[in-house]
Amino acid sequence: MSVSIAPYKTQLLSLLGSINKIGIAKNKLAIGLVIIPTAISMVYFSFIASDIYISESRFTIRSASKDSMSNLGGGFGGVIGKMGLNNSENDSYTAENFIQSRDALAKLNEKLNIKAAYSESSIDRLHRFAGIRFWDSSLERFYEYYLSSIVGIAHDDSSGITTLSVRAFDPKLAYVVNQQLNELSEALINRLNLRARQDMLEFAQKEVELARAKVEGINQKIHQFRNQKQTGPSEQQVAVFQQLGSEKDFADRNLAAAFASLEQARIEAIKKQLYLERVAEPSKPDQALEPKRIRGIITTFVLGLVLWGIASMIIAGVKEHQHHA
């Protein structure tokens, strides 16, 4: 998309005046290193460079507060009621790494076909995917383009907040990609929570089932023993009954311990529960923030001057050496 640089007319006229004052207009070296590159830069930023829109969002990953979980006296329900949230900085990097992963890109491409969107011919060749390296449009190359030109991530260590920025040549696409990345990250956190909860509770639940089965087995033996036709209690029968009673006491204690372990496992699962909290929803850009057109022109001009100065000194030194020789 071409954009007029008429608002920068005063600055450009001043820039051209600077070229004239320096007196390099008639210097062939200066023409090649300063004037021509600056002119090309002016044409590019005025009529060729595409507008780039940026959508930003902010999120943080939180976990259950360890302090609020330490008091277990109130029971499981009491723990839930008192539960707080703490920043989980290490887990924030999990979401960030996912956003920068090939898996995230694959899901985005599947839902939004962003590879085609960033390859449209209406986008200037310097910025669109496979514009300069048109012969390489592989997914691996697009992944590199995704990391360098589409997504940007900044993490604030003090607050634990992650800022996600998405660049696109259409404001709606920038917003939609950012929104999708937030939803995909949240889905990832939920999957991790479910997996961790299942892993932590599976063993404890199996122990409860085994302990309950032993109690039921002992109860059945006691029931069968009592229903047997007996003429009178013998010493052997008393010993058997006492043995069954001891086994029942042990099985009951074992079942109670298994239930306590299960409840502790549930509490530990709550402690490790993660939450993706959106601090700021993805923004809907209504103005292109890039490229910085006038800055690009001035940068080209300044770099050209630096190169011209270095080249002039080298040429002058060579001529002086030849003169003395």
TrEMBL record:
- Specify whether Transmembrane helix is a keyword of the entry: yes
Q: Which UniProt keywords apply?
A: Coiled coil, Membrane, Transmembrane, Transmembrane helix
Question: InterPro entries, alphabetically?
Answer: Bact_polysacc_biosynth/exp (IPR050445)
Q: Name one GO cellular component term.
A: plasma membrane
Q: What would you give as a GO molecular function for this chain, any one?
A: protein tyrosine kinase activity
Asked if 4Fe-4S is a keyword of the record, the answer is: no
**In this entry, which stretches build a coiled coil?**
194-228
Q: Where are the transmembrane segments?
A: 29-54, 297-318
The name this protein carries in UniProt is: Unannotated protein
